Amino acid sequence: MSSLAASAAAPAHAPRRAWLTDLPVLLVAVVWGASYLAAKGITTAHTVVAVLVLRFALVLPALAVAARRRLRALTGAQWRGAALLGLVLSGVFLLETYGVVHTSATNAGLIISLTMILTPLGEAALTRTRPPRAFLAAAALSVLGVVLLTQGGGFTTPSTGDLLMLLAALVRTAHVLAMARIRSVRDADALSLTTVQLGAAVAVFAVLAAVPGTGGAAPWTVAIGFGPREWAGLLFLSVLCTLFAFFVQMWAVRRTSPSRVSLLLGTEPLWAAGAGILVAGEHLGPAGLAGAALVLAGTAWGRRTAAGAAR
């Protein structure tokens, strides 16, 4: 009797449970989409390194405390592998942050979404397998979209920021592929792996900040000069876009499928475009709007095609 009642009640409650899991993940996609505008609002070309030091130094102690037991269990090879990934990750953040300073938040969020196309292409190149034709078509659609997106005012040379964001997408792809191929980190848990990576990245930023002529303004100088608006933006990037986002992903992937989490996080460029247009008043001409639509369509199509091929 009780088992029948439970099975009868399950369908009614399942959608509710799925929604309760999906909502925080979708919120992560929203804050990640807004992160480009937030970074653009508090960063200049001379404060990129300082802002990165402050952003990750604020959350690293909390991660270290949460992961302290798991960190002790890491082997020397796992520490070295995670630190190497952290060096690559530091390059991703540097390119992204410098890029968003020199382009619009809308362009930044849409161009970086090409990672979803570049990663399966890179994996296919490493394994010497040919991607499905549908995926290649989706990739071509996304590339055409980026061309149109960056030429909204007429066909000119893409901005420095656009090129930096494209390079950031390439390095982010390398980071994802390295995580899958470095054997020592495959068995490491996500919390300790992320903590070591962010620690290595902060070390890179701190070294750059300490070298005269390379890091721009010192982190403490930037922190002193921040007003309430800048501190709000920094806390948004640190607490919501880093700490909250990481823990939600860990929580959600245990309660739903990784594919579902990836699908929800894949809406990030939509929120980036929305924040740039609605909040910052950024403008996309007809060519830019067509390009944005093609990027979104191409990445969504490519993600579905890659997921189908994996199955």
From TrEMBL:
InterPro entries: Diverse_Substrate_Transporter, EamA_dom, EmrE-like. It is found in: Cell membrane. The chain crosses the membrane at residues 20-39, 45-67, 79-98, 104-122, 134-154, 231-253. The lineage of its organism: Bacteria, Bacillati, Actinomycetota, Actinomycetes, Kitasatosporales. It is a multi-pass membrane protein. Belongs to the EamA transporter family. Pfam families: EamA. Residues 23-150, 160-300 form the EamA domain. The keyword Disulfide bond does not apply. Keywords: Cell membrane, Membrane, Transmembrane, Transmembrane helix. This is DMT family transporter.
